[in-house]
Amino acid sequence: MILDVIHYPNKILRKISQKVLNFDSSLHTLLDDMYETMLAKNGVGLAAIQVAQPLCILLVNIPREDGEQYKEDLLEIINPTILESSGEILWNEGCLSVPGFYEEVKRFNTITIKYHDRTGNECQGQFEDFTAVALQHEMDHLNGVLFIDKLSLLKRKKFEKELKKNGYKVV
């Protein structure tokens, strides 16, 4: 089922997500619905809070060189924690909750995270480049942080100006 993606400036996006404790069928349904929603909205990542579920859940599915996203590449990340980070990368980011706005954000180039999979197994992985950027972007959502919060004052003003021009109230 395709879920509604909430947009900035909706206050729900600022909520801190709660740890997942039950790895049951309702979690599996949410993960499946989030995946379907992410693909339908042409996203490469989606956090549960973006579909109004304040849970520490995120998905990332980076397209391959042919531009396609394959389900076997899907990362379902639950209760993530960054263990190590290194390097810097600038990436032109966008967000399904901030449609139509893209800006460069500085992120770690390589991260190691621990997390749970959909059945509750503890996992650990090292990720780099676009995958690391996408994971950090989605993990920020779990803490109520949007990529626009990381912009310089000048770029933030540009964003707010565009938002006002499109009839939105800036918060």
Automatic annotation (TrEMBL):
Its cofactor is Fe(2+). The gene is def. One of its GO terms (molecular function) is peptide deformylase activity. Removes the formyl group from the N-terminal Met of newly synthesized proteins. Requires at least a dipeptide for an efficient rate of reaction. N-terminal L-methionine is a prerequisite for activity but the enzyme has broad specificity at other positions. It catalyses: N-terminal N-formyl-L-methionyl-[peptide] + H2O = N-terminal L-methionyl-[peptide] + formate. It is an enzyme of class 3 (hydrolase). Signal peptide: none annotated. Binds 1 Fe(2+) ion. InterPro entries: Peptide_deformylase, Peptide_deformylase_sf. It holds the Pfam family Pep_deformylase. This is Peptide deformylase. HAMAP family: Pep_deformylase. Belongs to the polypeptide deformylase family. NCBIfam families: pept_deformyl, PRK00150.1-3. One of its GO terms (biological process) is translation. Fe cation binds at C95, H137, H141. Keywords: Hydrolase, Iron, Metal-binding, Protein biosynthesis. The active site is at E138. The keyword GTP-binding does not apply. Its EC number is 3.5.1.88.
